[in-house]
């Protein structure tokens, strides 16, 4: 399976990178390049890596995410994972990297999103 990546500018100085498909030895470089491209165009306050549509990720894909995190951090930009698929969430948990990426809750299709109130 291939990988496609959609980049979007969200409000508040946030850029979302949303990969779809499998992040593995053949496609991991695309995630690194997408992060590098966003950083080359400017310095957003935060990069959100929306992993909702990622069906598989291997160790090379995890490594690409860590490299992207480090590149963003050096640039003074926070990189977080949002809406990880259950598979991605499990891989981040097993590798001990869930906290590095903001400890996101797994995405469940059809689940209501909960609103977080300021100060809560």
TrEMBL record:
InterPro entries for this protein: Anti-sigma_ant (IPR003658), STAS_dom (IPR002645), STAS_dom_sf (IPR036513)
Descriptive protein name: Anti-sigma factor antagonist
Annotated ranges, domain STAS: 13-120
Please state which protein family the record places this protein in. Belongs to the anti-sigma-factor antagonist family.
């Amino acid at each position: 399976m291939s990988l496609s990546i959609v980049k979007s500018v969200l409000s508040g100085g946030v850029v979302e990178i949303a990969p779809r498909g499998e992040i593995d030895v053949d496609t991991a470089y695309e995630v690194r390049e997408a992060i590098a491209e966003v950083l080359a165009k400017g310095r957003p306050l935060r990069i959100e890596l929306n992993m909702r549509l990622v069906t598989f990720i291997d160790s090379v894909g995890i490594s690409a995410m860590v490299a992207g995190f480090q590149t963003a951090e050096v640039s003074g930009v926070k990189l977080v994972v949002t809406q990880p698929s259950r598979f991605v969430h499990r891989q981040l948990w097993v590798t001990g990297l869930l906290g590095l990426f903001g400890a996101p809750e797994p995405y469940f299709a059809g689940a209501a999103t909960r609103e977080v109130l300021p100060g809560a």
